[in-house]
Amino acid sequence: MVIEYNGTVLRNEVAIRKEKVYRSQNRAVFMFRIDSEHVVDATQSGGIARYINHSCAPNCVAEVVTFERGYKIIISCIRRVEKGEELCFDYQFDTVEGQPKIACHCRAPECRKWIN
Ligand SMILES: [Zn+2]
C-alpha cells in the first residue's frame, strides 16, 4: 500500500452537481468513482493522492475496499517503483457517448491515446 485516496463520499447526483459548480469556477476537479452510486470528491478536502496521474502502463493500482462504515480507496504498487519514479495508476474511465475524449499523455509504449 502506498497511500489512501481521501475525500468526501458523495451520492452520484450530488457529485454531478458539484462537478458542474467546480467547472463553472474553473477549478481542477478531483473525483474518484467508487461505483454507479458513489463518488469520492477530493477537490476541496482531499489528500495528495488526488494528484497521482493516469498511465496506460501504471506502477500502481487503485482498489476500493468496503469497510463497515463505508469505503476506502487504496493505492498500491503493482511492481517495483524506482527512486524518483512518478506514481501512476490506470483511471479506467468509462467511455460515455457524447462526452469529449480526453487525450492521454502518459508516453507509455502501450498508450491507448485516450484516457476515456
Ligand atoms: Zn496513455
From TrEMBL:
<keyword id="KW-0805">Transcription regulation</keyword>
<keyword id="KW-0479">Metal-binding</keyword>
<keyword id="KW-0539">Nucleus</keyword>
<keyword id="KW-0156">Chromatin regulator</keyword>
<keyword id="KW-0949">S-adenosyl-L-methionine</keyword>
<dbReference type="GO" id="GO:0042800">
    <property type="term" value="F:histone H3K4 methyltransferase activity"/>
</dbReference>
<dbReference type="GO" id="GO:0045944">
    <property type="term" value="P:positive regulation of transcription by RNA polymerase II"/>
</dbReference>
<dbReference type="GO" id="GO:0003713">
    <property type="term" value="F:transcription coactivator activity"/>
</dbReference>
<dbReference type="GO" id="GO:0032259">
    <property type="term" value="P:methylation"/>
</dbReference>
<dbReference type="InterPro" id="IPR046341">
    <property type="entry name" value="SET_dom_sf"/>
</dbReference>
<protein>
    <recommendedName>
        <fullName>SET domain-containing protein</fullName>
    </recommendedName>
</protein>
<dbReference type="GO" id="GO:0044666">
    <property type="term" value="C:MLL3/4 complex"/>
</dbReference>
<dbReference type="InterPro" id="IPR001214">
    <property type="entry name" value="SET_dom"/>
</dbReference>
<keyword id="KW-0677">Repeat</keyword>
<dbReference type="Pfam" id="PF00856">
    <property type="entry name" value="SET"/>
</dbReference>
<dbReference type="InterPro" id="IPR003616">
    <property type="entry name" value="Post-SET_dom"/>
</dbReference>
<keyword id="KW-0863">Zinc-finger</keyword>
<keyword id="KW-0808">Transferase</keyword>
<keyword id="KW-0489">Methyltransferase</keyword>
<keyword id="KW-0862">Zinc</keyword>
<dbReference type="GO" id="GO:0008270">
    <property type="term" value="F:zinc ion binding"/>
</dbReference>
<feature type="domain" description="SET">
    <location>
        <begin position="1"/>
        <end position="92"/>
    </location>
</feature>
<feature type="domain" description="Post-SET">
    <location>
        <begin position="100"/>
        <end position="116"/>
    </location>
</feature>
<keyword id="KW-0804">Transcription</keyword>
